[in-house]
Design goal:
alpha/beta, FAD/NAD(P)-binding domain, 3 domains, seven-stranded mixed sheet, five-stranded parallel sheet, binds flavin-adenine dinucleotide
């Protein structure tokens, strides 16, 4: 069976980002790479959005960006500017196409469906798959979205809505999220933060229809694309294996309080590329420990006080926009961390420490 210098298990966001980063920096000129990917074809399956706090390789896959956003709780709306760090949305279809076209030009890169097709003994493995499907009792950010098109101009395309908490919370944490791509097109998502055991909150289509028709007051629209997913708000437990590291969600690249993962994956790919020749000896790339600590407290608060979370998220945005965005994107200074902490209800948070 054929052998490779490197193997990437899972050719999704993390696997392909890493392969691309290695290829464009000529790290696959004299090395071979096998990508193991189960899917039959690549097509748009999601969009990745984030505040652009660091550079990445996929500016040409950005579908739209915004310099302004809102956050709502019943009877209150906050307008926030994010000109310094625009909020970008990447179309996964463009992302997959760009990377596959690039990798196809390198004869050292091979695709396989199953790891059993190759010899793995002497390879270094980057693994992006993990067994977390059964962790239903943990917290997840689960959501579903419609990309809709209206026949009349309806949306303000200059401003997106990050969180609209003016909806039924069902003793959980629930908000809607709207990304207006143009005056007539938008992605609207219903998002829950909870475990995955409560089937009464999984009727996403009804929630979306109700919100679109009764809150946004749009009667005539068609659904062009549907996105459904669940992001684990916990890190998978990995068994340390010789000559293998985990990447992407499996490698702990999700920010637990927000679900944001895409830019962390890009930073992890860059780190691996910079250290690829000595990868066995360098320490693993990880999200700064202070965020793991703060996010764990935040999630405990969320689990025990779902009814208070809308107010807590809303209050967080009383800080300067740069501070909140830096904090949510793991780029905050100690001063900014304290500024966020000072806006949080002290009693509730202190209780979770002990
Ligand atoms: C619908 C959705 C929307 C998201 N939106 C955002 C967002 O807006 N911003 C953000 O920062 N993060 C977002 N995330 C979180 C995160 O960025 C994505 O989940 C991202 O795709 C994680 O990359 P990954 O490579 O770890 O996993 P994936 O992209 O899921 O890649 C894993 C790959 O492994 C393949 N695979 C699975 N099993 C096997 C197997 N046995 N053998 C071979 N291959 C296998 C899969 O087909 C897949 O291609 C979103 C997640 C989802 C699910």
């Amino acid at each position: 069976m054929k052998e490779f210098d490197y193997i990437i298990i899972g050719g999704g966001c993390a696997g392909l980002s890493l392969a691309y980063e290695l290829n464009i920096h000529s790290k696959l000129k004299d090395k071979t790479l096998a990508i193991i990917e189960i899917r039959d074809e690549y097509k748009k399956d999601k969009t990745w959005s984030f505040w652009k706090v660091s550079s990445h390789n996929f500016e040409d896959c950005v579908k739209k960006y915004w310099n302004n956003f809102t956050i709502n709780i019943p009877n209150h709306t906050k307008h926030i500017e994010c000109k310094n760090t625009p909020y970008q949305t990447i179309d996964s279809g463009l992302f997959y196409q760009k990377i596959i076209n690039n990798l196809k030009q390198n004869n050292n890169v091979y695709f396989f469906k199953n790891i059993n097709e190759i010899n793995t003994e002497n390879s270094y493995i980057f693994n992006s798959i993990s067994d977390i499907a059964n962790s239903k009792n943990n917290l997840w950010q689960h959501f579903s979205g419609f990309e809709i098109e209206t026949n009349k101009e309806f949306f303000d395309e200059e401003i997106f809505n990050l969180m609209d908490f003016d909806c039924d919370q069902k003793e959980s944490v629930h908000f809607f999220y709207t990304l207006p791509y143009s005056k007539t097109k938008a992605l609207i998502e219903t998002t829950w933060i909870s475990d995955l055991n409560n089937s009464s909150i999984n009727d996403y289509d009804n929630q979306l229809k109700d919100y679109i028709e009764n809150n946004l007051k749009i009667k005539n629209y068609k659904v062009n694309f549907k996105e459904t997913g669940a992001i684990p708000l916990f890190h998978p437990k990995n068994i340390k294996k010789l000559n293998q590291i985990e990447i992407g969600t499996a490698g702990g690249m999700t920010r637990l309080s927000t679900g944001y993962t895409f830019l962390n994956i890009q930073e992890q790919s860059k780190y691996i590329r910079q250290n690829i020749e000595k990868i066995k000896d360098v320490k693993l790339f990880s999200i700064n420990n202070k965020y793991q600590f703060l996010d764990n407290i935040f999630l405990k608060v969320l689990k025990n006080n779902p009814d208070k979370m809308a107010q807590i998220f809303y209050k967080m945005f009383n800080c300067s926009p740069n501070t909140v965005i830096n904090f949510l994107s793991n780029k905050s200074s100690i001063y900014e961390d304290f500024s966020i902490i000072s806006k949080m209800p002290k009693g509730i948070f202190l209780k979770q420490l002990f």
